[in-house]
Amino acid sequence: MAPMTTTHSSASPAALPRIAVLATGGTIAGSAADAAQTSGYQAGVVGVDRLLAAVPALAHVARIEAHQIASIDSKDLEVALWTTLAERITELAARDDIDGVVITHGTDTLEETAYALHLTIKTGKPVVLTAAMRPSSALSADGPLNLLGAVTVAGSKAAHGQGVLVAFNNRIHCARDVVKTSTYAVDAFHSPEIGALGWVQDGRVEFQRRVVRPHTAATPFVAGVSWPVVEIVASYAGASRTTVDALVAAGVGGIVVAGTGNGSIHTAVQAALADARARGIAVVRSSRVGSGHVMRNGAAPDDACGFVSAGTLNPYKARVLLMLALAAGEREPAALQRIFDTY
User: Fold this and answer.
1) Would you tell me which CATH number, out of the four given (3.30.2310.20, 3.40.50.40, 3.40.50.10310, 3.40.50.300), belongs to the domain 230-342?
2) Which residues are the active-site ones (predicted)?
3) Exposed (0-12), middle (13-18) or buried (19+): which is 21, by Cβ within 10 Å?
4) pTM over 0.85
């Protein structure tokens, strides 16, 4: 399949796409007292107008409509913000004069927000998340170039129908695949299993492949105001059942386990999870490994205990999908497995 490419040239301002930029805070909007400081800064303190003013090249790429949605460090994100973003994106995308949406976000939970929106918003217009690893005050801050790239992608016709995308360090990723892989490097986001969708550079956008799993309008999920409580537990040497039992007592609706290797689970934790499943709590096996997939085991523990395989989803994205599945009324392992196999 030939690459899909679009290039923005010296078009008149009226001919440029109109892009809504929704700012939520994060490092891209962070500031420190010292330009050499790339840690220990305060996130989310720079407003969207200042972010845009720092990238004058945007005037040659798109007409911008700015919205400040939140001003947070994304480590503190609450899932209610997903509902707010989904509702605002739906409202904006319904307008004929909006061609795409960009969301500036913190890197810590960007992959979770991207996947939640990928499953819940109902538009074919491009929705692109971006972020930064260095605060706006830092030497060689990466936010301005990432923002320029994201707006360029959002204005590209080739991005239509691809679901929610992440534009970071010149690469374009699918929201389902992308993960944060470094605590400090500017090249911090990758799609480990199958790679990026394409790239953006100097006004050019090229996709090498398209997203094939259902997303956006092709899913039954909505970002409701009430998200079921789903928690994550880990399996490791010497693990006990204490955490699982505490979550069951607290009344959670589902548990995702970050297993070792192919989603394998310590015997003590597995016994606790089997007890949780017997009480109607959904249990999904993912892996703490950074890439690969969790194969469904035909006997133990999946069929025997009623567990679900997360496939290629890491524990954090598996939690997002399980919350949406539970909110849609699905509880039985077979139905949940079909959902994980599909989305």
Assistant:
1) 3.40.50.40
2) 27, 107
3) buried
4) yes
